[in-house]
Amino acid sequence: MSRAQIMTGAICLAAVVALAFVPMIVDAYHLALAISLLQFTVLATAWGMFSGPTRYVSLATTAFFGVGAYTVAVLGEQLPWSLVLFIAAVIGAIMAVIVGLSTLRLSGVHFVIFTFGLAELVRQIVVWYEVNKTRVLGRYVFVDITQNDIYWQLLALAVIVFGTGWLIARSRFGFALQIIGEDETVARHCGINVTIAKVALFTISATFMTLVGAVMAPRFTYIEPSIAFNATISFEVVIMALLGGAHRLWGPALGAIPLTLLFDFLSARFPSTSTLIMGVVFLLIVYALPSGVVGLWEKLKAWRPSASKMRGAQA
Amino acid sequence: MVSAVKRLAAGLLAVAGAAAVGWGGAAEAQTSVKIGYAISRTGPAAGGAAVTTIPNYELWVKEVNAAGGLKLGDKRVPIEVVQYDDRSSAEEAAKALERLITQDKVDFILPPWGTGLNLAVGPILNKAGYPHIASTAVTDRAPELAKRWPNSFWLLGTSADAAKTLVELLTKLRTEGKIGDTVAMASIADGFGIDLSGAARPALTAAKFKLAYDKTYPVGTQDLSPIINEVKALNPDVFIAFSYPPDTIAITEQSRISGFNPKVFYTGVGTAFPLFKQKFGANAEGVMGIGGWSGDSPVIKDYLARHKASAANGAEPDRWASAVTYAGLQMLQQAIERVGKVDRAAVIKDLQTGTFDTVIGKVKLENNMPTKYWWVGQWQDGEFYGIGPSGNEGARAPVVPKPAWKAQ
Q1: In this model, does residue B77 exceed pLDDT 90?
Q2: Residue B183 maps to which CATH number?
């Protein structure tokens, strides 16, 4: 490992430790904001993990998020918390494998529409089951999980999602994904099993989304399909990842953090027009930053190579 | 990497900010009472909030401030409002309330609209010790929630109670020989429809009614004519639809078109809305629905007039949760004024034990819930009167059989 890498690792570790103390020092509102930031950071990073290399735009985030939340609503009061989280992850992973195998042959806009429909499909299945079998709609989540616990669990998830992304990028699997992203036909000719690679990646990404839903569920107290399967989450995650730039591991977080802060600022300052302003912001992002903050950063770097070289020479 | 540093910086900034705010607020004298609320101005809950909640909040604040403000001890202190849009999202509502409590440091908080959002903010208000007067939440777990969160007050009751009252009314009508015992029931596959049909089903069976039809339909169903046609062929004495506003309108319209006119015609949420009267005019006559109020009471008539004068476009209140919402505000005001200062624990205590003079009559809570509700109402001569429970003060006698649909 180079010195720079060790330095980077040490700074990351220090940052995580520092972040772990946030709940001790901030008030309830800033803790809520920190929870939102972490939630969207993990969701957007997990989204970018799959959509970055494969270039599939998935609107299924809320399907997995909702499944996680519902698992907690059903099992939360009966089983120990860690087991509930584990079961949620397994359910999310199984669902992702089934969905992945049946849909990753679709391409482009067909995939987008399918994933959008998936969230609605899962939601309708839950509704059908609750209406006809359990005859209750709307479940209560009364578990002993505090806001601090939610924050720490999300922080742990964030560490794991970045760690996983980092490991994937350095593995044979990551190299295969890079080739698939460049050209799927070439990848096939190189002997890469494209379907398995894509399904595996989709499953990893979806498992993280499911876990975020499960961790967030105790915050809602009351869960019904319209709350758990809220399509807005899917769109917010896409726009955050696109703003940041989905082709780098840390790109989506660069979109998630400013946008979460912006949404919060807008709803505090312009309570009646915040949704309108958000729409305009979305349009601006798509037109002005087609490859995200990361793309802009890379473009700037490429644009002034001589300047940085000169600085290097002076030093 | 950059993100971690950024987050650390944001965290540190947040700490610094919080500390600064904490220093500044300490020495201020009480020149206003800050009242905060987060309400759904956008999203799926916006329609309900716009009819039932927002006009009442605005009316109440306007009236209190016109009188000089809330009476604290021997002086009057005006209300200052801080409000946010919760975008109909539980997460957003939770965050907005935490902002109201820790950033804006409001003295009291008014509840959001709807069952889900009231449940979502319950733990936050409980933890921070704010009174939580939930006036638009119907949940069977209300008694349990009131125990869990002693600061919460559930003014709209339980769906089991709603179904029980309806079945009692039907049983009475059958004893009087006004209806037979065939019932058809359709319900929306969403919280309200499932809870109510779940409570009504055993109650109807226990009362020996014959349930000829019992089906649900999904949220957002546009064409309800298949249901109406199927039910019409069964020729029931009683038709019950536990429906939401859009389907309440659609079911009534479809029944009128196909001439389905059972002796008792009951629809769900929305029947009590002023919109229902505007849409159906004389054809509203005899339609029963959830809610109702004492339409002959002078206090209610006065409230109706003030609401119309205050609301945008002279909108009328709905005949169910609107008056209850306004009554909840009156209770909060009376509790604050009796305590005489911003002492939330004392205000909660007063709400639990005191007696209140409101537009829905004298209210004294037991276990944080009222003892009287209007559960069944009926449109009679252009007003939606409460008819059940029949023991309530001001209850009108039901008009059965329902008059025939008129040609429009």
Answers
A1: yes
A2: 3.40.50.2300
Domain region containing B306: 30-158+299-364
Higher pLDDT, B88 or B392: B392
| Residue B48, C-beta contacts closer than 8 angstroms, at least 6 positions apart | B40, B113, B114, B136, B245
Mutate to test the interface with B, among A13, A24, A137, A161 (most CBs of B within 10 A): A137
**Averaged pLDDT for residues B119-134:** 93
Say whether both B227 and B180 belong to one domain. yes
Whether residues B134 and B278 fall in one domain? no
> What value does the mean pLDDT of chain A take?
87
- The torsion of the CA quartet A90, A91, A94, A96, rounded to 10 degrees, works out to -110
Say whether B44 and A226 touch across the interface (CB within 8 A): yes
**Within this chain, do residues B163 and B223 fall inside the same structural domain, yes or no?**
yes
User: Under a CB-based contact definition with an 8 Å cutoff, are residues A261 and A37 in contact?
Assistant: yes
The single-letter code of the amino acid at B368 is N
Alpha carbon distance B350, A9 (integer Å): 57
| Mean pLDDT, range B161-165, rounded to an integer | 93
Supply the Cα-derived Rg of chain A in whole angstroms. Answer: 20
Domain presence at residue A10: no
The larger pLDDT score, comparing residue B4 to residue A54, is at A54
C-alpha neighbours within 13 Å on the C-beta side of residue B78: 6
In a domain, A9, yes or no: no
Task: For residues B151 and B270, state if they share a domain.
Answer: no
Task: Tell me if chain A has a CB within 8 Å of the CB of B102.
Answer: yes
The pair of three-digit structure tokens given for residue A193, joined into one six-digit string: 């099993």
Span B61-90, mean pLDDT? 93
Domain count for chain A, please give it: 1
- Residue A3 belongs to some domain of the structure: no
In a domain, A6, yes or no: no
Same domain, B223 and B143: no
Q: What pLDDT score does A102 carry? A: 85
Share of chain A above pLDDT 70, in %: 96
Between CA B333 and CA B327 the distance in angstroms is 10
**pLDDT-based confidence at residue B170 (cuts at 50, 70, 90):** very high
Which 8-state DSSP code applies to residue B369? B
B123 chain-A contacts, CB cut-off 8 A: 221
- Report whether pLDDT(A190) > 60: yes
The boundaries of the domain holding residue A33 are: 15-314
CB distance B218–A267 less than 8 Å? no
Provide the CATH number for the domain around residue A204: 1.10.3470
Name the pLDDT band for A270 (thresholds 50, 70, 90): confident
CB contact under 8 A, A131 and B216: yes
| Pair (B326, B200) in one structural domain | no
Is A26 at the interface with chain B, CB within 8 A?
yes
Do B42 and B70 belong together in one domain? Answer: yes
For residue range A85-133, what is the model confidence (pLDDT) as tens digits? 999 999 999 999 999 998 877 777 888 888 899 988 999 898 888 887 8
Q: What ipTM was predicted for this assembly?
A: 0.72
Both B283 and B189 in a single domain? yes
- The number of folded domains in chain B is 2
Query: Is residue B271 pLDDT above 60, yes or no?
Result: yes
CB contact under 8 A, B84 and A267: yes
Separation between Cα atoms, residue B239 and residue B241, nearest integer Å: 7
Q: Is B113 inside a domain boundary?
A: yes
